[in-house]
Amino acid sequence: MSENLTNQPAALPQSSQATDVVSVVMNVNETSSVLMTSGSDPTPKVEAKKIDPKKMFVDVPPQPTQKGPEGILFDFNYGCRVEVPPLPEGQNWRIKLSDIETGNIVYETSFLGGIVQSSKKYFIPFKIEIWKNDVLVLEHTLSLKNKEVLVQVPVGTLGDALAWFPYIPQFQERHQCKLTCGMGEAVIPLFKESYPNINFVALDKLQPEKFYASYRMGLFFDDWECTHQPVDFRYAGLHKTAAYILGVNPIEEPAKIAIPSGEREIKEPYVCIAVQSSTQCKYWNQPGGWLDIVKWLKEAGYRVICIDRDATWGQGVTFTSIPHGAEDRTGNLPLLERAKLLSDADFFVGLSSGLAWLAWSVGTPVVMISGFTHPNNEFYTPYRVINYHTCNSCWNDPKHIFDHHDFFWCPRHKGTDRAFECTRLITSSHVKSVIARMPGFPKHEVLHQSDKAPVAQESKMIISVKKNSKLKA
After folding, report:
1. What is the Cα gyration radius of the chain?
2. Are 137 and 167 in contact (CB under 8 A)?
3. SS3 sequence, the chain?
4. Do 182 and 151 meet the contact criterion of CB atoms below 8 Å apart?
């Protein structure tokens, strides 16, 4: 998900204030770059490219979308962009960009004409001041009220969209803008009904030339200069990085999901599980762990429903299948169906995955088994399972950049007998002890003698709950 900047040519004018702005338009999506013109050079020409539905983000328009006096163009589409026409020798433009919140001048330069674009792409309350031959001709402070604004959420992951989205309506409410959220078509139904003030559009159907400002959600792994995010997401957390990018409060809050109405499909108490993931480090790698948990949950009075998309998944010689004893509800089903099934479940047991975020979003207690992420990376759950006696949290260690193309990524111990120990050494008794802390667990006490040791003390007292009622932490 990381993106690289084009190198800045050495001949460009130097800033008199700071290095937060470069004098080159650098499209981070690597579709084009525009050099600043000087002297009598012609206005830069950019060849616009068609929107590729497989791309992570839609390109910004080649030129700024807002018109000012004297042929000036400007906007705030993925950074502050200013374009001024070339002037003859002896005349000049002076451009100053400021951050009105911090009071800093982030860039100031004089030149004959061309383009200036900020290197910082996240939300900054910019002020643009432009002088032509020492006469102020444009003074514009960013104001999103009633403006067309775009926030892009990349296609392809459920968890990221659910993690980031709650900060988008907060952004819209704060600025009272006409906000369009571009995202994958499959996840739009989760949000559309609950957020009537937001226009949801599939990324490949966006018209980027209409927007006054635009921002991108993402995990920028090698953004060491923090140009796309004000703070490294590995410190902020997967979800809260969106708050920092948009400049809103990083308060943890689930999205509002419009759960379909209707009767509960499964009348008996049941638990949803999800055992699959996109890379081996995310799996629960304890041999026989899922088999033991499924058997134990069934003996405790629950039906166990597996809701993964794939019944079997993996790469190379390693594949994981639905645990024996779990009921098979796998398949590429509409996400609202998954949301309804999860909302009626007593609780969910799974990994650091999109289905865990969906369960949290619909208010279902989540038992999360994860060792490769630090607990701060995800939403808070009192039922987090992590073993600090082992190697852990490599995902949140900036020394290790996640390799999306390596299914067996284990940056510290790959190829050794310690590979994937972060979850391989999470025992089923550990998971049971966490589940047993839930009020109302078990539905009925039919535990084997060998299973009683790890059960938390409070689980020996059966709390009376209404049949089919949801457990709360």
Report:
1. 26
2. no
3. CCCCCCCCCCCCCCCCCCCCEECEEECCCCCCEEECCCCCCCCCCCCCCCCCCCCCCCCCCCCCCEECHHHCEEEEECCCEEEECCCCCCCCEEEEEEECCCCEEEEEEEECCEEEEECCCCCCCEEEEEEECCEEEEEEECCCCCCEEEEECCCCCHHHHHHHCCHHHHHHHHHCCEEEEEECCCCHHHHHHHCCCEEEEEHHHCCHHHCCEEEECCCCCCCCCCCCCCCCHHHHCCCHHHHHHHCCCCCCCCCCCCCCCCCCCCCCCEEEECCCCCCHHHCCCCCCHHHHHHHHHHHCCCEEEECCCCCEEEECCEEEECCCCCEECCCCCCHHHHHHHHHCCCEEEECCCHHHHHHHHCCCCEEEECCCCCHHHCCCCCCEECCCCCCCCHHHCCCCCCCCCCCCCCCCCCCCCCCCHHHHCCCHHHHHHHHCCCCCCCCCCCCCHHHCCCCCHHHHCCCCCCCCCCCCC
4. yes
Query: In this structure, how many other beta carbons lie within 10 angstroms of the beta carbon of residue 226?
Result: 14
Angle at 277 between CA 166 and CA 240, to 5 degrees: 25
Predicted confidence (pLDDT) per residue in 93-125, tens digit: 999 999 999 999 999 999 999 999 999 999 999
Chain segment 202-242, per-residue pLDDT in tens: 998 999 999 999 999 999 999 999 999 999 999 999 999 99
The tokens for 38 are: 């000087």
- Looking at the annotation, which residues are catalytic? 160
pLDDT tens per residue, range 244-277: 999 999 999 999 999 988 899 999 999 999 999 9
Do 91 and 65 contact (CB within 8 A), yes or no? no
Tokens (6 digits) for 322: 């639905």
Long-range CB contacts for residues 182-187, cutoff 8 Å, separation at least 24: 182/58, 182/150, 182/151, 182/152, 182/153, 182/206, 183/152, 183/153, 183/154, 183/155, 184/153, 184/154, 184/155, 184/156, 186/335, 187/158, 187/161, 187/162, 187/335
Global pTM reads: 0.83
Q: Minimal CA–CA distance to 271: which of 449, 426, 438, 453?
A: 438
